[in-house]
Each structure stands twice: as structure tokens, then as C-alpha cells.
Amino acid sequence: MGRMGEFELLARIRERLPASGPRTHVGSGDDAAITVPGGATATSVDALVEGVHFRRELAGPAQIGHKALATALSDLAAMGAEAGEAYVVLGLPPDFGEEECIELLDGMAALADRTGTDLAGGDLTRSERLFLAITVVGHASNPEALVQRAGARPGDALVLTGEIGGAAAGLALLDNPQLRTDFVFSGATEGEKTKSVMEELVARQLEPMPRLVAGRALALAGATAMIDLSDGLGADAGHLAQASGVKLAIEAAAVPLASAAVALSEATDRVPWWLLGGGEDYELLASIPPGRLERASEAVGNGGTALTQVGEVQAGSGVEIRLPGGRLLEPAGFDQLA
Amino acid sequence: MGRMGEFELLARIRERLPASGPRTHVGSGDDAAITVPGGATATSVDALVEGVHFRRELAGPAQIGHKALATALSDLAAMGAEAGEAYVVLGLPPDFGEEECIELLDGMAALADRTGTDLAGGDLTRSERLFLAITVVGHASNPEALVQRAGARPGDALVLTGEIGGAAAGLALLDNPQLRTDFVFSGATEGEKTKSVMEELVARQLEPMPRLVAGRALALAGATAMIDLSDGLGADAGHLAQASGVKLAIEAAAVPLASAAVALSEATDRVPWWLLGGGEDYELLASIPPGRLERASEAVGNGGTALTQVGEVQAGSGVEIRLPGGRLLEPAGFDQLA
Fold it and tell me: What is the ipTM for the molecules in this complex?
């Protein structure tokens, strides 16, 4: 956009930003935002590019804004950090108008509001394709209060928040009109119920919620290592296993799958295990000594999220997923199930 | 790029990153970087997009990496902050290979090293066009130690670090082969000297240096407001005037112009004042009470940079630039001089 267009749009954006957070002294509008962190910070950056991470024909501007901030905040959840500030870079193509830009920012601001995140600064630029780059800063009283990927020890329980598979099922529905038709005519669910199941799955794909409350509860309860599931259970378990220098043994039957996703799988004659290969659920996978498991479940449950033991940490390396009946699945083998 | 390509490239990148800085507990590779700021932070984000902010036919990968980090750090310089951490998002097109990516990061890492900046994290993505989004975090003992755009008071002196016009002259040389030819044949300078003048101007455009040391010296000496010159003297003075609610009166004859840029102007029959309209010099414009001017000049000079009074702060609004002979120039009128 031209410089004047940029300044005017920036002025409109500033009007819509939530009030500054508790640590923010100077927000958007100066050369830099000024904050007083007061402890340790966790900082993560995430970029989303049209055609790579999202498609504008499938996701509205508000959903794109929501998801970009959600995936960034999910990295803070995976450290057990409190959400603090977000800094937003938008690359705006000529066919993405000012109103769409405001919608995108409103979607982002709504999630910022829900999660106590301060949209403290940003930059706008022209671009051929829409892109977003989001930096989020989270806080903790000290570095030791944050949970890294390294730290899982043999004997630890492996736990998962919420349920997975919903985002993959939602993407399949968005991608494949035939799948929607098959599901509707399968008779697995009826009328309004079918619609709400499909909406739930699509929302899970387009508007994920970062598990910030659960992440802090797990950190407080004594999780030894943690990661968020963006690439998929097998791939992200692999990152945690590698960083910790351990093996993760996962029981597929123990993994909580989204019931709507299972209903879709059954109605369309797919084995539900294909859902294990899906990414973008943004649930948290953590290791925790068995003696702290009960306290962790209660703390995470108090925040409204289930916590399920899905396996254990063993000496060794890599990830092993055991299907019912005893067949072992390598994470790289998920594709065979899809 | 494919996920495996991304992981491999990330591994190569991590090998090349400078050692972690004093505040960084966990750098690149976990869900987030962990730092312990210990005071106030200044955070700024900047995006550079191919075809908008740079052209790959004019700037090499190392220069693109340098300039992206330099422009981000310049915002910290303008607050008087100490450089801390940088987080780098790269959008990589198919025709930008792994070697070019490493060159780009080497250019960035060299500047990071010179300025004491820790490259603490980042994200890679595919993109049709090359883009960079850089978040920089600077530090100060407390929020009051940082200098904002607001704060200039009538009676303050208006000072400028270094000299300006070089970046605009460099861009003109890059853009216009005829200008290079005219300059060579003007006889204004000879042989090797001509070459070194042109190289100096091009470097000023492609590899600007953020004035971090001067910015901290000005903050310590008691600057009341400060901004870096990215859009140009008139435009950026306008931002400072607006934020402070004052008028800035600038004497054009007092503005230090890069001698190489003046030589180019003279050799090609342009009035040197067109240089005032150029951006991207990344010098600092600050207001300071006259009683602190000597101390500020000495402190900035000790860091190897000149400090020049170019005008004063007055009651009122806007920016007034007085040309020799008394003609007043509106910042919007720079184009008439070009």
C-alpha cells in the first residue's frame, strides 16, 4: 500500500486494539513498544503464508487472524508461560481490502482479549500474497518455571490435553466436498446433528484454541517436558523424544480422539487411526512423574480441559505407537492409514 | 519447502548462529526462546518484502540479511535501548536456494555480532516472494531510560547524528545506470576516487548501520524525544513533532549532507537539497535541552559519530525547513527538488 494508506490503516488499527496490558508502558505507535517483564520471558515467532498455511477460499479473514495468533500462543502454552504481548506483521496483497484487514485484526483481537494477550505493536507492508508473522512474548516468574522439550525422564507418564483428530477431520471436510456428502448420506447422525458435527470439526481446523491455562497448570504441577501438537502426535512426540534423549511409548487406544472425528471416520469407512496422523490440534503433550499425575489431572480439569495418560517415557530413542492388537506403528507410517 | 528440507535447513542455521547472549537461557530449537530481561524492554517488528523493500537484482543475500536486521535495530537505537535479541522469520521462494539462505543469515549474523545482538529464534516458511520479518528486543534498566517520540519541548535543540543523503544517492546510482555514467564522465572526481565514492553511497543504501551507540549516548545525555530516519528527514521529523505536540524548525544549511552524495549531485547538476527528501539513512533525530547539548555531542563523538544541531523545537505543530535565502520548504515539497 502507499505510505498514506498505511498510516491511515494504522490509525484505524490502533483504535481497535485492546487496552494495553499490565506490563506494557508504551504500545503501538512509537519506534518500539516498551514493557517491563519482571521475570523470565518466552518468545516465539510464527509465520503463516497464503497458499502454504491457509487458503482464503476456505478461511475468512477473522479466522485467519484468529488462527495465526492461536498457533503462536500455542508455543507459549507449551512452555507453561502466561500470555503477554503479541507483535503482528501483515503482508497485504492488493485484493485484500481495508475492511478485510480490519476483520482479520478483529478476529485476532477477540482471541487476544480471551487470552489476556496485549497486541502491543506491528508492521504493515504490501505483498503479492497475504502473510502474517506473529511474535508472542509470554511470562513466568523465573526461567525454571518454564517447561522445555528436554527434560522427560524414563518412568514419567506421557499425558495429552483434550482430544485430537478434530483438526485433521475438519481439514478433510473442507478439502473434500464428496466427504461432506458421504457423511450426510451415511445416516450416522441426523439433520441438525450432522451439521453441528461438521461445524465443530471445521472450527477445530480454522479456529484452534491455544491451551494456555492447561499449559500453566501442567507446568505448576511439575511437568518435566512439554510440546504442542502442530505437526501431529507422532512428529511432535518425536521432537520431544529427541530433545529429551528418551523413547516415548504411546498406546493408540488410550489416545482421546474427537468423537465428531470418529463419527466422520466410521460414517465414511475409514479406520479412526488415520486421525493420529493429523496435525494442528494444538493440544499439549507432556511428560510428568507418575506421582504428580493426579494433581496435574485435577489442575488441568479445573481449567475445563481433560488430561489423559497416553503412554510412558522409556529409556531409548524415538516414538513407538502400539495399535490395539499389538501392531507397532512408526510415526512415519501414518500415511499408510489415511 | 518440504518439512524435511525445513528441519535440515534449521539444523544448518543453528550451527551458524552466534553463541547465546547474556540474557538468553534457551535459544532456537524449543517452542520458544527463554530470556531473563532484568529491566525494561523495547520491542519492534519490521518486515521487508522482495519487490517492495528490496530487489534481488540490486542487493545480494548477505546485504538483504544485513539491512533487514539493521532497520529493525535502528528502531531500538531510536529508543536509546541496548540491542538484545532478534527473532527472524524468513519466507523463502523456490528460486532462493539453501546456499543463498545461508548467505543471507551470515550477513545478518555478522551485524548481530557487531551489535551484540543474539539471534535467539525464528521460523521458516515457503513463499512465492522472499520476505523477512524481524522482531528485535532491546533492553534498558527501566522504562524511563528509554526515549520516545513524544517529549520534545519548545526551546530544545534539534540534533542529528552522522550525515544524511547517502542512502538516497546510493539508491539513485543503483536505479539509474545513466547517472553512474554521468558521474564518471563529469570529472568531479577521478578514477579510483570515483569508484570509492560510488561504492560508499551504494553501501549506505544496501548496508546501513543502526546508530545503537549514539542512541544510548543521547538517551544517557538527556534527549527528550528521538526517532530514526527511515522515511526521510521531513517525514520522520513530522512524526516526532506530532507525537510531541510541537513544531520543528530545521535549517537546511545546517543539515550535514554526505559529501559523496553532494559530489554526485554537483557532478550531475542537481541541487543538493533533493538529498533532504531521501529516506533510509537510519540516522537519529533527537531533541535535547540546550544545556545538555555539549555533553551529548561529546558522548556521541566518543562513539565515533558526529552530532550536529540542525534546528530547534518551537511551540506549534508541523515541520518547517528553511533553505538558504529564506525560502521555506514543506516536507511534502521535497519532490519538487528531486
Answer: 0.89
